[in-house]
Every structure is written in structure tokens, then in C-alpha cells.
Amino acid sequence: MNNLKLITVLAFWMFATAGIALSQTPEEKYLKANSLYNEKQYEKSIAVYNDLIRSGYFSDEIYYNLGNAFFRNNDPASAIWCFEKCLLLNAAHDDARANLDFVNRLTLNNQEIVPENFLSYAWNSLSATMSWRHWAIAFLASLALFLISIVVFLISASNRNRRIFFVASIIVFICAMIALTQSITGKYNIMHSHKAIVVREAVQLKSSPDKRGTALAMIQPGIKVHIAEFKTPWLKVITPDGTQGWVPEEGVVRLNAVSPIPVE
């Protein structure tokens, strides 16, 4: 009889504990993951962060913290993926950029990289000043200024003022179009990024989308590649040094994925 009571109490406690865990809010889960990280329980912290992300609650800060947890858990390739994902959501996240540069130097050493042309470098540098949401706000603000400039131009009696506000409206309109393009491009890249990271293990770059293709190179974990073509289950990719070849889809994790950890 005593055993039956003990089993009943234990079962009740287990169900109550499970109910509390299931009823945790995203904020509570986030704080729990942070607490586990601070206690140096990195693997448990990763599990909670990942559960939070897969539940649909994610942000640049969560991916940044997850990247730090992966790095502390001796998984620099997954950390690189998380920092890249963080910067995809918010290109102006300076801490993520600094950590990404550090882990890249530590993991990939002196990897050869094809330099960007000036226009690409300038555009990407501009993108890094704000997140896509802030670019959207900048577009709305510029659009409002453009409309105000047009109204003042139309009602102004002075030719000098009309010239000033005409030029101002053109400049503001150009700024608005740049902001709109940056916002749309940023949002599109989040959903349809053509970048991917080799995360779990090195993959062999093939000359054709076939296992019998000639091996061109080995791509180490942490390397970011550009996806140039899809031919399921193969991807044609371009490595940072400009080499092109084919890899199996499961060999890389795209940046528009939810997590670097595969769904079990």
C-alpha cells in the first residue's frame, strides 16, 4: 500500500513538473538558457535556445547567445553559422561581427578569399549600418521628407527656394530608394539566403552532381559557401577562394534554415 502511495506521489510530481515546463513562456525559456550558459552548462543551454527557436521565437540576440554557447561547447562551425544568422537578421550587430571574425581567424586560419569589388563592398558596408527593419523605418522617414519637400516646392513663391527644395526632393528620393532596396534585400535574404555553412563535418567538393564525380577539394567545417545552382539532392557552390563544384545538400546548412542542428 505504501509503495502504491509512493508511486502515485512520484507520478503526480512528474506530471506537475512536465506541466510547469510546458507552460514556460518564451521569456522564461530565454532566461533559463542564459542562466545555464552562465553556469557553464553549455550543452543544456544550447538545447533550450534551440527549443525556443524551433518554437518560433527567435531574434538576432538569441542566435548571438546560441553562437557563444556553441563556441564554448567546442563547436566553432555551428557558432559561425549562428553568428552569420545573427548578422543576417541584424547586420549592425557589432558583437556578433566581432565574434564571427574571431572564430573565423581561430578556425579557418589564413583562408584565401576572393576580394569583393568596390561596389559590392560599399553596398555591403552600407547594409551593415542597420538592420532591415531600421532600413524600412528610414525609407518611411525619407518618403515623408520627400513629400514635404514636394509640397514646399509647389507652394514656394521664391524661385531660389523652389530650386533648393527641388534638389532636396531629388536627394531625399534617392535616399528613400536606397533605404527601400536595403530593407527589401535584407528581408529577402533572411527568407531565401543563398549562403550556407559547412557545419557538421568536412564535405568533398565534386566536379559534377554525382558521387562518381572527380573530387576537387575538401571544404572544412565553418566555411561559408555561395549556392549557385540547385539540382536535388546536390548543390553547386562557390567557395570563398572562388572554386566551384557540387556538394550534397545535407553537407551544408543554409542560412535561411531555423537552426544548425538537424531535426531529429
Largest sheet: 5 strands, antiparallel
Low-pLDDT parts are: 1-22
Order of helices and strands: HHHHHHHHHEEEEEEE
Sequence of strands across the biggest β-sheet: 6-5-4-1-7
Q: How would you name the oligomeric state of the polypeptide chains in this document? A: single chain
Helix fraction? 55-70%
What does it look like?
The chain is α+β, with helices and mostly antiparallel strands. The protein has 3 domains: 2-108, Serine Threonine Protein Phosphatase 5, Tetratricopeptide repeat, CATH 1.25.40; 118-192; 195-254, SH3 type barrels (Roll). It has helices at 2-22, 26-38, 42-54, 60-72, 76-89, 94-108, 118-127, 132-155, 159-192; strands at residues 195-197, 203-206, 215-219, 224-231, 234-238, 244-248, 253-254. The strands form 2 sheets. The protein has a 5-stranded antiparallel sheet with strand order 6-5-4-1-7. Strands 2-3 form a two-stranded antiparallel ribbon. Strand 4 and strand 5 (234-238) form a beta hairpin. Helix 3 runs antiparallel to helix 4. The longest helix is centred in the middle third of the chain and has 34 residues, at 159-192.
Write the layout of secondary structure elements.
Elements: H1 2-22, H2 26-38, H3 42-54, H4 60-72, H5 76-89, H6 94-108, H7 118-127, H8 132-155, H9 159-192, E1 195-197, E2 203-206, E3 215-219, E4 224-231, E5 234-238, E6 244-248, E7 253-254
Helix pairs in contact: 2-3, 3-4, 4-5, 5-6, 8-9
Features:
SH3 type barrels; 9 helices; Serine Threonine Protein Phosphatase 5, Tetratricopeptide repeat; 7 strands; 264 residues; 5-stranded antiparallel beta sheet; disordered N terminus; alpha+beta
